[in-house]
Design goal:
Radius of gyration: 19 Å
Order of helices and strands: HHHHEEHH
Structural class: mainly alpha
Shape: globular
Strand order of the largest sheet: 1-2
Number of helices: 6
Largest sheet: 2 strands, antiparallel
Strand content: 5-15%
Helix content: 40-55%
Distance between the termini: 51 Å
Length: 193
């Protein structure tokens, strides 16, 4: 149980290593903009593994914002929910990028375009069922180190390696995403399916 009226206690929890840190960080952000009474969140089933790079922390942040948005009719758009969830997550020792909050779109394919802190989204037409395979590589990852390395290469590349990263995350990524969107939107030949 987290007390919404104690920002100091929420900050203490948000700085902890507890999974509740994400909830506390998000409640701090909600409290900056809205007065809400609270809610009871009962997690009756978890099927998203934590610490595997699947945005489980973003999922709990979005869940808290969306629950309070719906319960108290805060009139937040999906983008508003995503923004508060992002800011809530960065209140914790963990760090995330803006992409993680894509979980707010649920089970629909959405193209997200980033320009600094600006995000543009567009729903992607999918002509057939997508089958995803998620594999646990049993490897460790360090999100803080990943983001630190990315941030060091931006906005100005320091060397050829950084220039290659800019190309990979820039024009190469745009091309690959455009090809993927085109393939997903294609009608399937029922005779070959």
């Amino acid at each position: 149980e987290l007390a919404l009226d104690s920002t100091a206690e929420l900050r203490r929890v948000a700085q902890s290593t507890s999974y509740h840190a994400y909830i506390a960080g998000t409640l701090i952000e909600i409290g900056k903009h809205f007065r809400v009474g609270g809610a009871e969140v009962v997690n009756y089933r978890s099927d998203l593994p934590i610490k595997k790079g699947l945005s489980s922390s973003a999922a709990i942040c979005v869940l808290v914002v969306r629950a309070l948005n719906e319960l108290y009719d805060l009139k937040l758009t999906v983008h508003g929910e995503m923004d508060i969830a992002y800011r809530g997550e960065i209140n914790t020792p963990s760090r995330c990028g803006r992409l993680d909050q894509c979980v707010a779109f649920g089970q629909r394919v959405t193209r997200m375009t980033f320009d600094n802190d600006l995000i543009d989204t567009q729903r992607v037409r999918v002509a057939a069922t997508l089958h995803l395979v998620v594999v646990d590589l049993c490897a460790a990852k360090d999100t803080k180190e990943i983001l630190k390395s990315l941030n060091a290469a931006y906005p100005f590349p320091r060397d050829d390696r950084d220039k290659a990263l800019h190309a990979l995350l820039g024009e190469v990524n745009l091309d690959v995403c455009a090809q993927a969107i085109e393939i997903m939107s294609r009608e399937r030949d029922s005779a070959r399916a």
